[in-house]
């Protein structure tokens, strides 16, 4: 039955509201914002108020903020190329390409390298940008059970031979649960079945591995394609794909989110180069963040919360339903603590949660404020 767009949007929004699923983000103001425990700025670089020297003076000129046109027209600068070459070196790869976001990087890459007649095996908990890239590729997609190499092996066994290219794709650190992909097992399966391996290192780059070089480096696995998120530990924005020079040349030919989008402004590669040096020497911050996450997880568990923690900076207090999750988030906000509620479809139904991320820039007092606020909420909840 034909409907009016405006009436139908209204109806749909009301339905989301009734399910406590409506998203209405807080508009943060630097001077009044509560202590933020839900950013992905793991090393605290993004929250730093330190003045940055970008040219001979500290001012940013307008041309540094303008991408001008796409990289393939006139937006390609020597600084972009320099940053890509340094990112590739850091990741022990031949080359890299910078996209305007991690989302654009995953979407553009998956749809550029796989198509009809190919098969993608994707972990059930992969990030939305991977899911959407798989869909856009038109390849046959097999969703294997989360972190379950046995299930992947069965699928490869029964379907791999009917397709041309095959790609296994996984997050390195899963964004919502903070658990790690079994990369060694995945690599072995890829080698056995002539499949390529793509690893999204959005939450692992800067945090795990030697000098923050990611989970692949930590476990000694060579992935064919890696996505390095630049909006998290780097404290910037964007995403880089690193891999072979053939791969990067092909992205330049076929990745539509790279080709048909204005280039990232030159100020981004300038800061990528600076931040790379900071990341390499941030071992104390990495250790600090991991130790803090462990401490918070222990404290909240001892208060009686259902806490998920897998030894990464991400931890979640599972509350189950949407209403309790959003009430708790508001109660914490009222106590000066910002922990956003995460609901379906971002996480599976029945696992709505408060996802907590300590960063290297939090003070000890701020960590105490977080655990005390949770303790007060617990008291109120069980009374
Ligand atoms: C695992 C993962 N991949 C990709 C992205 C997308 O990156 P971006 O925010 O830069 O678009 C995110 C988060 O946003 C993520 O968590």
Topology readout:
Layout: H1 5-18, E1 35-36, H2 62-65, H3 78-90, E2 95-99, H4 102-113, E3 119-123, H5 128-137, E4 140-144, H6 149-159, E5 166-171, H7 183-192, E6 196-200, H8 215-219, E7 225-229, E8 239-243, H9 245-254, H10 256-259, H11 267-280, H12 283-302, E9 307-309, E10 315-320, H13 322-334, E11 337-338, E12 341-342, E13 352-356, H14 364-382
Parallel strand pairs: 1-11, 3-4, 3-5, 5-6, 6-7
Antiparallel strand pairs: 2-8, 7-8, 9-10, 10-13, 12-13
Helix pairs in contact: 3-11, 4-5, 4-9, 12-14
Bound molecules: pyridoxal-5'-phosphate.
Summarize the model shown:
By secondary structure, the chain is an alpha/beta fold. The chain folds into 2 domains: 67-280, Aspartate Aminotransferase, domain 2, CATH 3.40.640; 282-382, Aspartate Aminotransferase, domain 1 (Alpha-Beta Complex), CATH 3.90.1150. The protein contains 14 helices and 13 strands.
Report on the architecture of this protein:
This protein has helices spanning 5-18, 62-65, 78-90, 102-113, 128-137, 149-159, 183-192, 215-219, 245-254, 256-259, 267-280, 283-302, 322-334, 364-382, and strands at residues 35-36, 95-99, 119-123, 140-144, 166-171, 196-200, 225-229, 239-243, 307-309, 315-320, 337-338, 341-342, 352-356. A seven-stranded mixed beta sheet has the order 2-8-7-6-5-3-4, sandwiched between helices. The N and C termini lie far apart (50 Å). The protein has two domains: 67-280, Type I PLP-dependent aspartate aminotransferase-like (Major domain) (Aspartate Aminotransferase, domain 2); 282-382, Aspartate Aminotransferase, domain 1 (Alpha-Beta Complex), CATH 3.90.1150. The mean pLDDT is 95. By secondary structure, the chain is α/β, with parallel strands linked by helices. It is globular and about 60 Å long. Helix 5 (128-137) links the parallel strand 3 and strand 4. The chain contains 14 helices and 13 strands. Helix 4 (102-113) packs parallel to helix 5. Bound molecules: pyridoxal-5'-phosphate.
């Amino acid at each position: 039955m034909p409907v009016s767009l405006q009436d139908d949007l209204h109806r749909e929004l009301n339905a989301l509201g009734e399910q406590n699923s409506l998203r209405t983000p807080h508009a943060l103001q630097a001077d009044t914002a509560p202590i933020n425990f839900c950013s992905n700025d793991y090393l605290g670089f993004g929250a730093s108020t330190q003045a940055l020297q970008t040219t001979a003076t500290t001012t940013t000129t307008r041309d540094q903020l303008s991408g001008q046109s796409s990289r393939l027209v006139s937006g390609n600068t020597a600084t972009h190329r320099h940053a890509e070459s340094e990112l590739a070196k850091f990741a022990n790869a031949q080359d890299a390409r910078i996209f305007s976001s991690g989302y654009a990087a995953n979407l553009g890459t998956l749809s550029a390298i796989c198509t009809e007649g190919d098969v993608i095996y994707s972990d059930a908990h992969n990030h939305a940008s991977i899911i959407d890239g798989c869909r856009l590729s038109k390849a046959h997609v097999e969703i294997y059970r989360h972190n379950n190499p046995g299930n992947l092996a069965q699928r490869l066994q029964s379907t791999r031979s009917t397709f041309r290219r095959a790609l296994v794709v996984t997050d390195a650190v899963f964004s919502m649960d903070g658990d790690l992909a079994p990369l060694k097992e995945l690599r072995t399966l890829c080698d056995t079945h002539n499949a390529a391996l793509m690893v999204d290192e959005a939450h692992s780059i800067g945090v795990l591995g030697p000098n923050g070089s990611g989970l692949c480096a930590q476990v000694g696995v060579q992935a064919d394609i890696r996505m390095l998120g630049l909006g998290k530990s780097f404290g910037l924005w964007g995403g880089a794909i690193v891999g072979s020079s053939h791969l990067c040349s092909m992205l330049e030919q076929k990745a539509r989110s790279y080709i048909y989008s204005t280039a990232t402004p030159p100020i981004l590669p300038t800061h990528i180069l600076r931040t790379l040096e900071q990341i390499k020497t941030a071992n104390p911050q990495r250790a600090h963040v991991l130790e803090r996450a462990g401490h918070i997880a222990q404290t909240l568990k001892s208060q009686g919360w259902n806490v998920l923690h897998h030894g990464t900076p991400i931890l979640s207090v599972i509350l189950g339903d949407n209403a309790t999750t959003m009430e708790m988030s508001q109660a914490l906000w009222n106590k000066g603590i910002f922990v956003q509620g995460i609901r379906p479809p971002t996480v599976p139904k029945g696992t709505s949660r408060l996802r907590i991320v300590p960063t290297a820039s939090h003070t000890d007092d701020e960590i105490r404020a977080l655990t005390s606020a949770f303790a007060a909420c617990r008291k109120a909840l069980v009374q």
